[in-house]
Amino acid sequence: MVAGIIVTHGRLGEELIETAKRVYGEFEGCFAVSNEGKSPGALHDEIDAVVKSLGDGHCVVFVDFVGGSCCHACTRLKLERADIPVVTGVNLPMLLAFLNKRDSVPFGRLPEEVLDRGVGSIHLVDPERV
Amino acid sequence: MPVSLVRIDDRLIHGQVVLGWARVLKADRIVVANDRISANEWERRLYAASVPPHVGVTFVPVDGAKSVSSEGQSVILLFESVSDLHDAVRSGARFEEVNIGGLHYREGANEVLPYVYLSDEERAVLKGLSETGVRLVARDIPGNPAVDLSALLIHGGARPSGGI
Q: Which of A9, A65, A72 sits opposite B46 (nearest CB)?
């Protein structure tokens, strides 16, 4: 199983996982990391510890937004571990797509498919075009 | 002219600085005073990537902080640590007020505020700066209350080092 690591401000990652469980049902292999109260070094070490706990298993890292300390830490991770995909702008549809596809889509294509679903879920609602 | 904000923050450029302070101060430019980053192109690009396009960003070594001036612009000057600020002052930089925005838990540092942990050495440096007339104000984002750190450090209001 491909693991997901969600790195965010506050409790967003934790709540995305909890909320996804209400929609998708129970699942495992997703980990939330918050930057709350952490120095850049401490945040880096916590992400690193989750990655190391997965051993040789694949993972996708999700980040809340570009420009924050979470994305900063994940960009450093990417420099050290080029094989780990990092996707920014995590949202609930993106996480649900990840859960749906992680066991069926080849790992090489997974980040892009998940990203497409996340981006594709954003619309201006128009009742004329439902 | 003095810069709009001098801040110590171990994260340097990040959400609180860009979305909080730069927005409220209408910052034209962010200056990062840091030896490691100013000497490394990849580090400079990494930090610059966090800055919105309408805000300029420059990187100087710590001893370059004394030459940073606003030139009529709104400028935010960032240091990563108390020791970098101290080095800047020792190299001739003068500041009226310094914002302590984020110094998180490290080995040997004790909590003063939830986002400010100081070692004994850092306390001594800040106390010394405070006694020379530098106002030390802890505040993470503009909407939150400012805490007079000078008073806290000088009058012993902060939690004593080494114990709870």
A: A72
Burial grade of B21 (CB within 10 A; 0-12, 13-18, 19 or more) = buried
The pTM score is 0.89
Find all residues with CB under 8 Å of A108, minimum gap 6, and list them.
none
**Sheet harboring A30-34: ordered strands across?**
A30-34, A3-8, A59-63, A86-88
Structure tokens at B3: 């810069």
ipTM over 0.90: no
Nearest residue to A4 (alpha-carbon basis) of A34, A45, A32, A23: A32
Q: What are the pLDDT digits (tens) for B99-109?
A: 999 999 999 99
Q: Could you give the count of Cα atoms lying within 13 Å of B8 in the half-sphere of its Cβ?
A: 25
A 24-63: CB under 8 A from B: 37-42
Counted across chains A and B, CB pairs separated by less than 8 A come out at: 45
Residue type, A110: L
How many CB atoms are located within 10 Å of the residue A80 CB?
A: 10
d(CA B31, CA B34): 9
pLDDT tens figures, B109-162: 999 999 999 999 999 999 999 999 999 999 999 999 999 998 888 766 544 444
Give yes or no for a contact between B103 and B81, defined as CB atoms under 8 angstroms apart.
yes
